[in-house]
Specification:
The structure holds 2 protein chains of 2 kinds. By secondary structure, chain A is an alpha+beta fold. Chain A folds into 2 domains: 2-219, 3-Layer(aba) Sandwich (Rossmann fold), CATH 3.40.50; 235-360, Beta Barrel (OB fold (Dihydrolipoamide Acetyltransferase, E2P)). Chain A has 10 helices and 21 strands. Chain A has helices at 36-44, 72-75, 92-102, 108-118, 133-146, 163-179, 191-197, 215-219, 225-228, 330-336, and strands spanning 2-10, 13-21, 25-29, 51-56, 59-63, 68-69, 77-80, 151-155, 184-188, 200-205, 208-214, 234-245, 250-255, 258-263, 272-278, 282-285, 296-307, 312-319, 322-329, 343-348, 358-360. Helix content of chain B is 79%, strand content 0%. Chain B contains 10 helices and no strands. Chain B is globular. The chains are: A alpha+beta, B mainly alpha. Chains A and B meet through α2, β7 and α3 of A and α6, α7 and α10 of B. Chain A: Residues 1-231 form the ABC transporter domain. Chain A: Belongs to the ABC transporter superfamily. Chain A: One of its GO terms (molecular function) is molybdate ion transmembrane transporter activity.
């Protein structure tokens, strides 16, 4: 468990961070320059907050009231930096070996495990200068893991990579996040990464934590549009793969007792999955609909409506217990007579759901 | 192949002994000073920097004279060292090494400081997050990355120590077999009537030694650069 309640500053930006998260992956999410990296540096002990408290798994790393301030090397927080920061004069093997030595990871099988998890066997005798960006980042993750950290901080590990490298490394991150037994703090300004990896979402804006909660809850909150960006805003639905129709290359996912058809995934039936649905990809209908190509029609309850300036309105609905965020024109809201407490049918195009954004959570 | 006279041989071995001793003592101190100036902020930073560079801007004769006052038999430091450790500098080859080391010191500190400043502190940060102690970070990250600069400093210092003249002759005089290094021997020969041939032979010896050292250091520097660059 990570507990953070700190105040400080970095240059002109005042920092005020207050959040706690349980095991699993916690994302610090916000625009570039929002202060995310500063907060992680304070947690890692590379920057000093003015006051507050930082604790991991109950152990206090920093407490201004009690005068506790462990130096970075004694905090045991594995840090993966945006720019990898491998030691350029050492081979990959030596980079890993020093981390293992620092973490007193005597266990040889652990070394093999990490190397296999990240697929870096073939890189061991090379030097960082000869590696691609994605390879370097994988080695950096391995190095952090081998220092036997009690928590892992990943500061935009994909930000310096192009799209191809990103998709090369994301599967490794997926596996890591599901297999790691330590809390992971994942810093990103990319919503797709956060939705895919994080269980808990902490939204940072102008140096402050503005929201903290489960990824599904936070992503559907209407008032956080500024932080998450309108275009990408959406919700995360949790369901279970129920089957695959190979004839049409479609998979079905059960969500709150309803069936949702999505482009075929490779995920085993019975696996719990998260899928992200962008608010602008959902339509609402009232009354009977027929003659439509849209395959997914889910009855929902309208919970809240926020009209914005310009043409847009944000509607928060519920499918059973789960929130669903919908983006319509104000004109449609008016014409359909939508109001909080009313019922409607949410229409989601099957192909609007990106199969890369359907993620098995590992719980079978 | 010319054969060396015993006096020439003596001057050559003495010069190498003086320069090597000066380097062995002054280089580690210069690494420490370079690191401190590059990485630490402390009161009197500018003053320390100034004092280190003094021998570079003072006339060597002045430095030699100051050494004579401080480290001579009756000087405050010299008498203390002699009575406590039995260590004598005045008119000994050790004095020549001291003068050479002091004169070479500022020339070594500067490239070392620059080399350490060029090591990205972010790498040291990363090493700290792994749980490595600062002294280990220094040994496995900072110093290896600064090694080309330290090597350059060593060569510069060795060359300066080999050729040191003014401070040496002022401090420890010009005693054959004890303090008459190559530079002093050339000077002595040039002062002697009909000494041109002797001076010329000593000059050739100096050139050969200096050139050999330069070539050897180039080879080492290339190997280091390959290791650190990694783009083999």
């Amino acid at each position: 468990m990570i507990e953070v309640d700190i105040e400080g500053s970095a240059g002109d930006l005042p920092i005020k961070a207050n959040f706690r998260s349980d095991a699993g992956v916690t994302a610090l999410f916000g625009h570039s320059g929002a202060g995310k990296s500063t907060i992680t540096k304070m947690i890692a002990g590379l920057l000093r907050p003015e006051r507050g408290r930082i604790a991991i798994n109950g152990e206090t790393l920093f407490d201004s009231g009690e005068g506790i301030d462990l130096p970075a090397r004694r905090r045991r927080i594995g840090h993966v930096f945006q720019e990898a920061r491998l030691f350029p004069h050492l081979t990959v093997r030596a980079n890993l070996a020093f981390a293992r030595w620092a973490g007193r990871t005597i266990d040889k099988t652990r070394f093999k495990e990490v190397v296999e998890l990240l697929g870096i066997q073939s890189l061991l005798s090379r030097r960082p200068g000869t590696l691609s960006g994605g390879e370097r980042q994988r080695v950096a993750i391995g190095r952090a893991l081998l220092s036997s950290p009690r928590a892992l901080v990943m500061d935009e590990p994909l930000a310096s990579l192009d799209q191809g490298r990103k998709s090369e490394i994301l599967p490794f991150l997926d596996r890591l996040c599901h297999e790691a037994k330590i809390p992971i703090l994942y810093v990103s300004h990319a919503l797709e990464e956060v939705a895919r990896l994080a269980d808990t979402l902490v939204v940072i804006s102008k140096g402050e934590t503005v929201a903290c909660g489960s990824t599904a809850d936070i992503m559907t909150r209407l008032d956080l549009g500024v932080a998450t960006g309108r275009h990408e805003a959406g919700s995360v639905l949790i369901g279970r793969v129920t089957g695959t129709d190979s004839r049409w290359s479609l998979s079905t996912i059960g969500v709150e007792g309803y069936e949702l058809q999505v482009p075929v995934t490779g995920i085993e039936p019975g696996t719990e999955v998260r899928l992200r649905v962008r608010a602008r990809d959902v339509s609402l209908a009232v009354g009977e609909v027929s003659g439509l190509s849209i395959r997914n029609r889910l009855p929902v309850m309208v919970e809240a409506i926020t009209s914005e300036t310009g043409p847009y309105a944000e509607i928060l609905c519920r499918i059973g217990e789960q929130p669903l965020r919908v983006r319509l024109t104000r004109a449609s809201v008016e014409e359909l007579g939508l109001a909080p407490g009313g019922e409607a049918l949410a229409l989601i195009k099957t192909i609007a759901i990106d199969r890369r954004e359907i993620i098995g959570s590992g719980n079978v | 192949m010319i054969t060396l006279t015993s006096a020439e041989w003596q001057a050559l071995t003495l010069t190498l002994k003086v320069a090597a001793t000066a380097l062995a003592v002054a280089l580690p101190v210069a690494v420490f000073a370079g690191y401190a100036l590059a990485r630490w902020r402390f009161p009197g930073h500018g003053l320390v920097n100034g004092v280190i560079h003094m021998p570079l801007v003072l006339p060597p004769v002045v430095t030699g004279y100051v050494l004579l006052i401080l480290f001579g038999r009756s000087g405050p430091v010299g008498s203390f060292l002699e009575s406590t450790f039995g260590l004598t500098f005045a008119f000994r080859w050790t004095g020549a090494a001291l003068a050479a080391g002091i004169m070479a010191f500022p020339l070594m500190v500067r490239p070392i400081r620059l080399a350490i400043e060029a090591v990205d502190p972010k790498l040291e940060e990363a090493a700290a997050t792994l749980g490595l102690h600062r002294s280990i970070v220094l040994a496995i990250v900072t110093l290896p990355l600064a090694l080309p600069g330290i090597l350059a400093a060593g060569i510069l210092g060795f060359a300066k120590a080999m050729g040191e003249f003014g401070a040496t002759i002022t401090f420890v005089s010009n005693i054959p077999g004890e303090t008459r290094t190559l530079a002093l021997a050339v000077y002595t020969a040039a002062q002697t009537p009909d000494g041109e041939v002797a001076a010329f032979r000593l000059t050739i010896i100096s050139v050969v030694v200096a050139f050999g050292a330069l070539i050897a250091s180039e080879a080492v520097a290339r190997r280091l650069a390959r290791r650190i660059g990694g783009a083999a």
